[in-house]
Amino acid sequence: MKKNSTSRSAFLTVRVLIGLLIILAGVSLAVLGSRASSSPSGSNFAKAQQKYQPPTKIVDLTLLPAGFDCSKIRELGIDRQENFRAGLIMIACGEAEGGSGPNVSFLSRLLQTVFAPFTYGGTDVDLITGAETSPHVTQSETFSWTNPDNPNQIVVTYNDSRTATANYSGASYSSDGGLTFTRLNPSPFATGHGTNFGDPVVLYNRPNATWHAIFLASGCGTFNAGIGDWKSTDGGVTWAVGACVHNGSNDDRESGWSDMNPSSAFYGRMYVSFNNFAIAGPPISVTFSTDNGSTWSAPQNLPLGGASSVRNVQITGDLLTGDVYVAGMNEMGGGLGNRANMIYRSTDGGATWALTYTGPPFAGPGSGLCSNNSYFASMFGTYWRHMGWGEPAALNHVVHYVYAQHGAGADAGDVYYIRSTDSGVTFSAPLKLNTDATTTAQWQPNLSVNANGSLFAMWYDGREGTGCTPGVNTPCYRMWGRKSTDNGVSWQADMAYSDVISPLPGQPDPNVSVCYAGDYDYGSATAAKHVTSWLDGRNPINGASQQDAYFDQELVGAATIISAVSRMTHGGAGTFDIDMPLTGSSGVEDRSNSATHDYSLVVTFSGNVTVTGMPQAQVITGTGCVGSGGTCDPNGTVTVSGAIVTVPLTNIADQQVINVQINGVNGASDEPAVNVNIPMGFLIGDVNGNRAVNASDVALTKSQLGQNVGAGNFREDVNANGAINAGDVSLVKSDVGHSLPP
């Protein structure tokens, strides 16, 4: 449960005041009742759509690429693209209209802070800091990423129309783990690669400690833009222009993923997928970089698999194996017709790809069509284009995918999850993640998984709404979520994620298509948390709800162990660790530096923890105890520092495997406390760690005589005094013939 805070108490006070006002003014109930009939399913918008008349086709040459022929819109696939450049061309050619402000003279502004029980997530954080100038106030479509080596660093990129038509990019960074964000102003992505047309991606290249922001950019190609990269080495505070990811002429809807697993064969490789409308179809194309974005490979075009075109939904990778997956969608001609999910896989770092799965047709979500581009289905009649796109995730050959499809009857959308246990070849029957009994819509989900199998899905959800009109300040939707802690085998309840029920924000910018509220949100995860952002309308500008970007994070759940080591200080040479794996054969501690055989077990968890058990820790099998200097501590006292728990051990006998149990470990989220067990092997003199002391260990120790103690030879310093000498050789010789079970 979310913790009470001053802000929450203030919101609840407002809620009580709202209730009193409603009681004192009965007419307000009548107004609410009349608006309740305008449900998030968008029936009123469907009626409005029937009355829509296309705009007069007056061509605005100032918004068109030089020499562009408006008659080629459909030939070039401009009507099927979702980027801002395509939208401008449609507007300029009179095929679409830009946004405009709503009539808000009759609006109630008191119902923006209606609360449901606080469950997933923490406190919502507004990404858009600083002044805004209407009507260029459209911020939506988000991509969120965290530095795994410094979780305080979080960067979110998004579309931002504040300087449209010159630039459509924006980003905010956090240096305090997501408690606050700073919006980059002016946008550093507005220069270096020509005009920036948005479609945000942000990645972290772990080997080089470099952030990458990736957008569509006119300077990386011709006509309708290629893809450009910008780099940051200070946590997203400052940025420099990088290379072109793809020099294209008609690119659209890119996505990205970075391999951050040091054990992966493709560690440090970054991938970008996109739709290449310069090629018939279009197909999905994928490029990758092996040198921190300095150069990018020639794109590989993924097979259409019998489809006339395949939409690039999102790209991801297996956090364990390094395999890369792309989710595509056969939109089957668009509109409100059927769709089919498609999954592609690469096992060689993006060099080659195979179409592993084509799902059965399902009814696309939506309650109408975009008013001036009938290819795109939309939510709320004619307002929020959405074709069912979601996000994939993968861990240890298990592939996950969330998407939206039309619900029963008037239900415009439900969120579904499918799971593959064979690397994306076959998938389970779809599981509906939203369990509401309403006919209101759920749409535009995203999904993330971490290396411990914590899975979190988030989506837009209208079940609590009372009325949905763009720019009108009545409660419409809230972000909801659902979590699995076992890599998708089972799921917890679906519960609210964002703090308020947001109004449906308006889109007043004339330089952005009126049928636009962002096309995707990309979530990601670290060992400790899931991070994601979304489009929110709680903050009015000029009295009307506008598109704004918000952030929140969900902790992974019960604390999980990231690493366990036996730590010992070797005199002035420093401190060195021996790994203690949790599965398979135990680690082997071969050192002894005290007469009472003292050791130190250091356990790092996925997030900050407390230890509430009594005793806090104990040796449950084997000879030895928690304590120091030969004295056992009946309380089993440990030291806790954030996510790190240190257990002192004493009287530990040689030639054994013990089990140390830490009791009552409680993570920073609202999960029950758990006990954790760590096996530790002890065999003095086993300097090569093969579970037997023999002539090989003697020879290895002798070979290091007189050498400085360091990471490569500290095990040969058996007495841990900071020097490898005859004393170490003598210790090893005295234990020849000792062993541990396999």
Q: What would you say this structure looks like, in words?
A:
The chain has 742 residues and is mostly beta strands. 9% of the residues lie in helices and 36% in strands. The chain has 6 helices and 48 strands. Strand 16 (338-346) and strand 17 form a beta hairpin. The model is unreliable at 1-57 and 103-118 (pLDDT under 50).
- The helix/strand class is mainly beta
The shape, in one word, is elongated
Distance between the termini: 45 Å
Reported for the largest beta sheet, the result is: 7 strands, antiparallel
The portion of residues assigned to helices is: under 10%
**Separate helix tally:** 6
Radius of gyration: 29 Å
Show unreliable segments.
1-57, 103-118
> In percent terms, what proportion of residues is strand?
35-45%
Number of strands: 48
Mean pLDDT: 87
Topology:
Blueprint: H1 6-24, H2 26-36, H3 43-50, H4 84-92, E1 125-126, E2 139-146, E3 154-163, E4 167-174, E5 182-183, E6 201-205, E7 210-217, E8 226-232, E9 240-246, E10 251-258, E11 270-276, E12 284-289, E13 300-301, E14 311-317, E15 324-330, E16 338-346, E17 354-358, E18 362-363, E19 368-370, E20 373-379, E21 384-385, E22 391-395, E23 398-405, E24 414-420, E25 431-432, E26 442-449, E27 455-461, E28 475-484, E29 495-496, E30 502-503, E31 521-522, E32 524-525, E33 529-536, E34 540-541, E35 544-545, E36 548-555, E37 561-569, E38 575-579, E39 588-589, E40 599-605, E41 609-611, E42 617-621, E43 625-628, E44 631-632, E45 639-641, E46 644-650, E47 656-667, E48 674-682, H5 695-703, H6 726-734
Parallel strand pairs: 2-31, 39-48
Antiparallel strand pairs: 1-36, 2-3, 3-4, 4-5, 6-7, 7-8, 8-9, 10-11, 11-12, 12-13, 14-15, 15-16, 16-17, 16-18, 19-20, 20-21, 22-23, 23-24, 24-25, 26-27, 27-28, 28-29, 28-30, 32-33, 33-36, 34-35, 37-38, 37-40, 40-46, 41-47, 42-47, 43-44, 43-46, 45-46, 47-48
Helix pairs in contact: 1-2, 5-6
